[in-house]
Amino acid sequence: MNGKATRFIIICIAVICLGLLAMRLSRMRQASLQDKVAAQQAAPAEMFYVGSKYDKIYHNPSCRLAAEINTGELVTFTSARQAISKGYRPCEKCRP
Ligand SMILES: [Zn+2]
Fold first, then answer.
1. For 61-76, what is each residue's pLDDT tens digit?
2. In angstroms, what is the span from residue 3 Cα to ligand 1's centroid?
3. What share of the chain is helix, strand, coil (3-state, %, to 5)?
4. Do 61 and 21 belong to one domain?
5. What number is the average pLDDT over the span 32-48?
6. Are residues 41 and 64 in the same domain?
7. Ligand 1 centre and the CA of 30: distance in Å?
8. What is the distance in A from the centroid of ligand 1 to the CA of 78?
9. Distance from residue 93's CA to the centre of ligand 1 (Å)
10. How many domains does the chain have?
11. How far is CA 82 from CA 21, 26, 57, 69, in A?
């Protein structure tokens, strides 16, 4: 094996490793909503709504937009009334 071939193989391995690492990171970033809620509450309520600190909109936990809320800005409510009393409005997509 000459030096060029060895270098090519090393580069291939590095690219594959980086690819796997990127896949792993993106999967970690897509932690499920349930995980995010569980991380925030010791005992998640059976029925709850979720919202973002920033946009002041609350969602059903199954909402696609709810899944996009980052862990750091996620807030949970045990009822729609609680969400509204804190100044949140219902999402127009999932109509909680
Ligand atoms: Zn929604």
1. 999 999 999 989 999 9
2. 57
3. 50, 15, 35
4. no
5. 66
6. yes
7. 17
8. 16
9. 5
10. 2
11. 41, 33, 12, 19
Do residues 8 and 54 share a domain? no
Whole-structure pTM value: 0.54
Ligand 1 geometric centre to CA of 39 (Å): 21
Same-domain pairing of 59 and 23? no
Q: Provide the domain limits for residue 6.
A: 1-30
**Alpha helix segments (H runs only) across 1-96:** 3-29, 33-40, 64-67, 80-85
Question: Under DSSP, is residue 57 helix (H, G, I), strand (E, B) or coil?
Answer: strand
Same domain, yes or no: 78 and 60: yes
Distance in Å, CA 65 to ligand 1 centroid: 5
Q: Are residues 19 and 56 in the same domain?
A: no
Task: Convert the pLDDT of each residue in 10-39 to its tens digit.
Answer: 887 888 878 888 877 776 666 677 777 766
Tell how far the Cα of 27 is from the centroid of ligand 1, in angstroms. Answer: 22
